[in-house]
Amino acid sequence: MNHTKALLVKGCMTIFVLFLVLSLSYGVSFFSVLLLSIVLCAASYLSGDLLILPRTTNLTATIADFGLTFFVVLAVSAWIFTLDGSVFMASLISAGIMAAGEYGFHLFLASHILPPNNQLRTSEYY
To answer: Are 41 and 11 in contact, with CB atoms under 8 Å apart?
Structure first.
């Protein structure tokens, strides 16, 4: 149940950010944003939140989420959306805003979802 709550929060954040950037700024359909959000949310939750975050710091997991978001949005945008050469900017803006949200999401995840033995590390020296 806890992971369902975390996925719901992450999914809403992902849909909101990608809708703002891709739909409102670049004219991508909501259905396309929804599909991209589902793929990105699942990949990011499994890799960044469940694998990287418990083993490293919040900053490391946020950087990994930035990279994953950038490359997924870049690949999908270049392949499906046809954004008239602004694919790089759309990906960069989406990844930057998502990284800011992910930093806060990791704090929520560490305090409410992850078990106590997986406390969030705030520095490299633990």
So the answer is: yes
pTM of the model: 0.86
Under a CB-based contact definition with an 8 Å cutoff, are residues 110 and 70 in contact?
A: no
Residue spans of alpha helices (H) in 1-126: 2-18, 26, 30-44, 58-76, 87-112
Q: Are 103 and 69 in contact (CB under 8 A)?
A: no
Comparing CA positions, the residue from 35, 55, 53 lying closest to residue 102 is 53
The number of angstroms, rounded, from the C-alpha of 11 to the middle of its chain's C-alpha atoms is 9
Q: What share of the chain in percent tops pLDDT 90? A: 49
Residue 116 has what pLDDT?
A: 67
- The average pLDDT across 5-20 equals 93
Q: Which residues contact 4 (CB under 8 A, 6 or more apart)?
A: none
Rounded distance, CA 72 to CA 33, Å?
Answer: 12
Q: Which residues contact 69 (CB under 8 A, 6 or more apart)?
A: 40, 44, 91, 94, 95, 98, 99
